Amino acid sequence: MNVTVLLVDDEQLIRAGLRAIVDAEPDLTVVGEAADGAEVPGLVTRLRPDVVLMDVRMPAVDGIRATRHLMSTVDAPPKVIVVTTFENDDYVYDALLAGASGFLLKRARPEEIVAGIRTVATGESLLFPAAIRRLAAAHPRGPARDGLTSAALTDREREVLRLMAAGLSNTEIATNLYLGLQTVKTHVGNILAKLGTRDRTQAVIRAYESGFVTPKP
Predict the structure, then answer these.
(1) DSSP label at residue 48
(2) CATH number of 3-126
(3) 4-37 as b/e: b if 16+ CB within 10 A
């Protein structure tokens, strides 16, 4: 599978560095660049990238607004990875809430960036459990409560969601629960459908937001 990537960053030097990293991989291709979030919808509609590497802080239209716009207006939007300088950046959590599938630090090693792109392109989450817990703890949304009751998750689905929130992949969840990989994929699909979320990252954010999973500072 060839994964196409759109680079969005207001610094040309950053874009050049990311392009060099991405285009060096045989299965990844940069199909376009943008210097501001305002350019993103048009480029996504025209180029249909699989993944957007989106700078979270830009002077005109930031990564949060651009991500929210993509998720609400583009049919079958691409996966979005927000790129940030600091992992505790308030913008990161807001971007995840807006629909981003994960985040990467600008100081990430080339192999981490490449792995991150491949991860979200295949439908997995690019989650860093410790960082997500810190971000969720810093952004309380009211008293803790099991707000997922109305979703009517089964006991097994609740187990799977907790392991998803811990950052486990489908394979790791299968090993942990002694289940087949396809069975886990079915559970994950059911969880996303019941929660009305588009991917694993959004399901995990929903778990924290509802109080189903309680972040520890």
Answers:
(1) -
(2) 3.40.50.2300
(3) bbbbbbbeeebbebbeebbeebeebebebbbbbb
Residue 179, both tokens: 């289940």
Query: Among the residues of the chain, which ranges form H helices?
Result: 12-23, 40-47, 63-73, 90-98, 110-121, 129-138, 155-165, 170-177, 181-195, 200-210
Q: What pTM value is reported for the model?
A: 0.78
Q: Which CATH number fits domain 141-210: 3.40.350.10, 3.40.50.720, 1.10.10.10, 3.20.20.30?
A: 1.10.10.10
Rg over alpha carbons for the chain, rounded to the nearest Å, is: 17
pLDDT tens digit at each of 217 positions of the chain = 799 999 999 999 999 999 999 999 999 999 999 999 999 999 999 999 999 999 988 888 888 899 999 988 888 899 999 988 876 667 777 888 888 888 888 888 999 999 999 988 987 766 665 566 666 666 555 544 556 777 889 999 999 999 988 878 889 999 999 999 999 999 999 999 999 888 888 888 888 878 787 765 5
CB 120 within 8 A of CB 81: yes
